[in-house]
């Protein structure tokens, strides 16, 4: 996913004391959240979001390191930004260039060696120090690098979220947990995001309440390993994701709760029960499995078997029969044979996924799998990925087709492209278009699905009146 956050160009850029900030975001939803928080942290310094790097006094490239050619992508984007900076310099305008995120964490020194024109390199744990880094870079006239894993928690030092307070923001991300101690063989996250840490319950609840007060109706709780959440409550006891969702469910006006990304190993009984007990918890779960072969799951250090995954899914579906699943798959992990790959295909057939993300294994330097024997040739990875994606596409089409004729609650979030049309989100995150009044925006209304398009659904309102 690639997005620019945020996108609006303020009228106030004509105000000389304000400075333009352009943030380019690559990677996961946590990066989207982080980009919004970096914007928040720079606001008191007079930075306001602008749409184009050409208008920006500071550009932040928030990077992702999870898969292939991450660093190369960064250097090519930096080359482009360098030209923008040179053009601005001709008009006497300076541009601070910052690289943030996981590539910055993993390759900080390399970035400054290969792109010495970069002013600031900062890892995901040091965003709260950004204002200081901007000041230091300006003062010293030389690059500042901060890829620490500081003892203080950045959340304690960040200002209150502004990002979710823009009128019309009905859905928001909220990071509750970061980092990972699982050390899957292929994954850089434990190295770039550091050890698993959870935000205290009070801090999460305060942010959620603020979001809801500003109009947010749906919150997605974020964490690299979100169901490993164990933030402390006021009594100093460790909470769980299930108990946190119980607390969140009690916030009036918060209609929908989601969480991502979870690990099958940390799906406990209480979490399964929460899916049945809490209507706000949406029946759509992203639960990465990576492979359906026990041998490969072991090599990946995933800590569970394929049957254990099947059993977790069965128990969840028992509590919430309308639960739909999404997952991540990797083909061509070192050592993967045809038989292993077939076991993954079988698991997909057994479970049935509404959506999925699938990747060819890419070697990440420093991870255990990178040096493992029996790397799988590229052509075999290609073939397996194609077969896997064809099956997943079939399942996704079948899932969408099955929705036609059914009635689902839709949270309306904005106007559609056609006049008279409004658009919202199904429980399964599909965009749904209907003919309806803009007054329904912000409300959840039952919609009968009448048609499926390539990336969205169409429907009709079951009742004109809003139910919230
Ligand atoms: N190669 C391919 N895919 C990877 N992922 C993580 N690391 C790698 C890698 N080295 C995928 C996993 C993970 C998702 C976010 O990215 O499927 O769940
Ligand atoms: Fe990476 Fe595994 Fe941790 Fe997920 S659980 S972030 S794949 S190490």
From TrEMBL:
Top-level taxon of origin: Bacteria
Stretches assigned to the MTTase N-terminal domain: 19-139
Residues annotated as binding [4Fe-4S] cluster 1: 28, 64, 102
Key words of the record: 4Fe-4S, Cytoplasm, Iron, Iron-sulfur, Metal-binding, S-adenosyl-L-methionine, Transferase, tRNA processing
Intracellular or extracellular location(s): Cytoplasm
EC number: 2.8.4.3
Record field: catalytic activity: N(6)-dimethylallyladenosine(37) in tRNA + (sulfur carrier)-SH + AH2 + 2 S-adenosyl-L-methionine = 2-methylsulfanyl-N(6)-dimethylallyladenosine(37) in tRNA + (sulfur carrier)-H + 5'-deoxyadenosine + L-methionine + A + S-adenosyl-L-homocysteine + 2 H(+)
Record's cofactor remark: Binds 2 [4Fe-4S] clusters. One cluster is coordinated with 3 cysteines and an exchangeable S-adenosyl-L-methionine.
One GO MF term: 4 iron, 4 sulfur cluster binding
GO cellular component: cytosol
Residues at which [4Fe-4S] cluster 2 binds: 180, 184, 187
Cofactor: [4Fe-4S] cluster
Residue ranges occupied by any Radical SAM core domain in the UniProt entry: 166-398
Limits of the TRAM domain: 401-463
Quaternary structure and partners: Monomer.
Function summary: Catalyzes the methylthiolation of N6-(dimethylallyl)adenosine (i(6)A), leading to the formation of 2-methylthio-N6-(dimethylallyl)adenosine (ms(2)i(6)A) at position 37 in tRNAs that read codons beginning with uridine.
Sequence similarity: Belongs to the methylthiotransferase family. MiaB subfamily.
Protein name: tRNA-2-methylthio-N(6)-dimethylallyladenosine synthase
Species per Swiss-Prot/TrEMBL record: Tanticharoenia sakaeratensis NBRC 103193
